[in-house]
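If it is no trouble, might I ask you for a protein's amino acid sequence along with its backbone structure tokens?
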Amino acid sequence: MLGRVVDAARRRASFTTRRKEKRGKAEGVPHEVVSYDDKLSRKSKSRSCDAPPVPIFHRRVFSLPGDAFYPDQRPVCVLPKGASSELIRGLQSGHKSDQRHAVRVLRDGEAGLRVAFVGAGGVPVLMEHLAVKRPPKEALQCLVAFLQDAKREVHSQFVEHGAVAVVARQLSGGTRSCRKWAARAVPQLVAGDPDAQGEVARAGGVESLMAMLHSAKEKRREAAAAALASLVKDSQSAQRQIALHDRLADLSTMLPKGRAGTRSMVAATLANVIATNPACQARVAEYGGEHLLKAMREVDEGLRRESLRALAYITAVPEGQRIVVEKEGVRKLLELIDSGQAMHEEWALEVLLNLTGKEGLTPQSVWEDLVNCLLKVLLKGTAGCQEKSLRVLAQLSQLRSSSEWQVGEGQLIPLSVSLLTKRSMAIQEGAACVLANIADVQENRRKIYDSGAIKPLVAILGGQHLSTRQWAGLTLSKLASSDDAVLDMVNEGVVHTLVQVLSEGSSSREKWAVQTLSTIAKAPHPWVRGLMCNAGSIDVLLSFVSSSAPNMQLASLACLANLVDGHQESQQMVLGVGIQPLIQLLLRGEPELQGAAVHVLAHLSHLEPCKCDVSGWPSIRALGRLLQADEPLVRMGAATVLADVATIRGPATVMQKMHNILILLVDILQADMREARCQAARAIGNLAMHSQEARSQFGACSQVLTGLVDALDEPGTSGLNTRAQAAHALANLMFQEPTLQTRVAQLGVVRPLVDMLHVDNHDCNVQAAKALAHLVEDHHANNVAVSLGGAMDRLLQLLAAGSDEAKCHSAHVIANLTHHSTSNQLAIVNGRGVPSLVSLLNGDDDVARGHAVRAFANLASSNEVAVVDSRRAAIAPLVSIISSSNDKCREQAARALANLACSGDEQELIAKEQGIPPLVHLVRTGTPPAREQAARALANLSCKDVNLPAIIEHDGIRALVSLLRSPNGPCRKQAAGALANLACNNSDNGTAVVEAGGVPDLVELLSSDSEACREQAVRAVGNLACTYDNQQALIQEGAAKQLIALLKRIEEREGCKQRVVRALANLAADNEDNQLVIIREGAVEPLMQMLSNRDSRFQEETKRALMLLACGTDIKLQPTMDDSADDIQSGRAKVMAAVLGVRLNFRNSGVARMHFMAESGDNEGVPRQLLCPITHELMEDPVVAHDGHTYEKSAIVEWFRNRNSSPMTNEQLKSTHVVPNLLLHAIISDFQESKGGRGAGP
């Protein structure tokens, strides 16, 4: 009973104390808190000291003050040791008051008491007390007190013994007070056991808490909001319950209501629910966006923080972005950032990060303020804020033009560069991203470089953070456009770093490294690319090409293209490693990869190994398909490779058979892309160079010719290469094609080609000269057109001061222009072109020397004094060329010397320069054309007696005789001519020819089909027949028969017949056997026909031959020679009968006797041929005068006493010497015998 009284007193004291406290708070007077025990003590002290103290009785177990639950306002009871056991026994006792007192003690006691209680195993006892259907609220308060101690072991024990289930059951079915305290327990339970979220949510906790939010009591709403915020923080099921049941609108409407703590928890709940759900984000933006913007400016820190977090989530969707922009939320955010509170800055920057993700979301009016605000954060903010600020700047720099980044008094670039050295990878990434985005402008790149960004960027490349390395690599690739930056990068070891990064793996994430290498490879310093090669970049790149992801293959191919572009060392290294990966992509890769592979091959295909690897028909077919690709660059690359491969005859033949390639090349030639037209023209030119059929096909296509001629007028400096390749194609098309030469000239090609000669471009000059050379070759009309077009002066300039190639082709044009053109020959001499041609003769270029030799060969045919005087300087080098190993040059040099040897003075120079020995050697060992020209040169040189010993000394006769056996007709002709000259008036040389075995070949040559060969053979035979032995050798080989056959040919030229007559006369001279053979072979009749032809210009030669045949030598024949003498006499009689027109009668001896026809008049019966032209009497002593006529000796001697003229022609004679005419004397004797005998008549 006493205990109940004491308890009641304590309760009253507690009530009185609480009332006084409230009153003190209202009046502002502090209230001293005293316990009930203290009051009792005071009362006992106020009594007399003698009175005994009033005893205070407590229960045996514990004493419980009624106000112990409010530790911040009321005194806390302190229990002695062992109180935990007493409390456990009190909870286990069946008395409710004891249980209630124990719960209150635990609730109001110190944390140590509760820890001791837990350690004593009191948790199960307390949970049994809570597990009842309607536990008292004090028990839930006690649970909250235990959970608020934040001890992990306490949490785990309560959760283990079903605290979650108790709280969930009370949330859904407890009294209002119990639901409030259960809601307060939820955040602590969830913090200690994440699985509690799902259990509470499944037990209907979300619905209960949502209902509590609508309570009229603020504390209940606050507890429900806190519980709901913690419940949905990591629970997907709780978040779905709120999202699916459309409770977001309710939560959004509660944002402006209640105390700041409640609103903060509501905002936190919204933030947790919508964090990853765009649909929920849009819903909250619609219903609560404005409330969040207002809450963002509240005083309460928690509310501001959670509002900003929710704003960060809703601005991830367009609806939220629109609300923030419309309500001028950006400026409010900037003000909040300026406040300098880190927790606010981070979420405000997150909102800005969402707003700056798209163009146009950030208003222009706040642009400068935004950037300045971000720069302040970079200067003074925390690491997290700096990271987010850099991310915002990175996004802005991606959206804005880089030229607009001139705000913040130039602090952006230095700040970003300084942040590259921070340890935070996120900050480094953001700074590198900003720098990469603004480095598109030259001015910004210069500032970045001046700020010392190279070293930290290269250091980042060696790190492990992939994204940061990517942005650093991109920045470096943009800075690589500056030479200074490239040098610094290389000095910092960027190449080795990138190659090492790529060597560690071929993941597509390393694409940035390949792209950075690609940009560095574009540097204008060749040694940089050499360093890249030495670092092993080519091996790595080719490995990526052969086995990697498509995007890495593309990046690697682009890097290889930059690396090998114009760099010989890189090209050789790629070929050394092997281009099979490129060819495999070309054959089997995707279209995009094929185009990239072709782009690399286009830089390599000019090298022979690459040509050989790509020259297979599958590769050519693949390249042909790429000619019709959609990308112009791909078509250009394919045309480039085909143009290079077409320089080999085999692949050119394959391409020529693939008609689609030819058609596509013609189409590209008419395309709009200039470089593609250039490569198509080059391909056409190379194909025409090797294939006659290709020349015919292209030449028959008017579109090709028109397109090429039009390309010659390509405007601008960039069109020079196209003009050069068009000229190259035309030159090869016109090669040895007279029809095409005419057609091209008619298209007006002369003027643009001559204009190209005057362009200050090497390729244009060379190809124009080449085209002009083929245009005028053996074409007189084009020769005249080019000469009149003013090309000569420029050609001479190129010949004197141009490149070796330009000199070569200029010499080619000059050689063609000087052919049979005296004016051009004089132009060469007057333009001082001879020294330049002589320098080419002394040069090492065999082709150029060949053209220069041909030019001198043409000049050697001129009789102009100026030309003759100037060309002599070429004799010495021409002689040296004869001894060279180049057959073409030797041929042209021999031709030039042959022409020069037509002049006596130049013959002496040739001999002086020791030109005869190499010419003789050339006759033996040269090519057929060279042997022909060398024989002609020797023939001309042999016209001068002083040169004969040198020819004989070096065994020139045997060389020429061996040349007679050549199957080449022109060679035999020139050999015969040279031998004819050597044997002329030189019996020793003639004998040498016979001894060398030249007679059979010369006689055989008399029956040649070539008129020129026959004529030279006749000359040689005639000159050889000057000695008896030579005559016999010629007769034995049938020379007489062949000569007479030529004499009988109606179509034979008179000049040749004249030489035949001379040869027959030489054969018959002083050789009666030969005379008989000639007569028997039928020479008299054709000789008489020629004699009767009054138009013949060589009647005197014919008369001489007939006289030799008719007269011979009047010798007394020996008896053994009677038969031969009769034959000779009969032959002579036949000749005279033919000459005199008389009949022949034969005596028994068989010797022919002449029966003359009688004539009327004073000398009746005397033939007029036997009468003296002076006395008109029968001659007794006939003699032949120098005019060839026969006279009576006494009469002509008398005539010459007074004059030196001919009695027949009245022409002055060189000599008055006379020779007896033995033949006519014999005839006169026969006539007199016949006159004295039987008389005239048959």
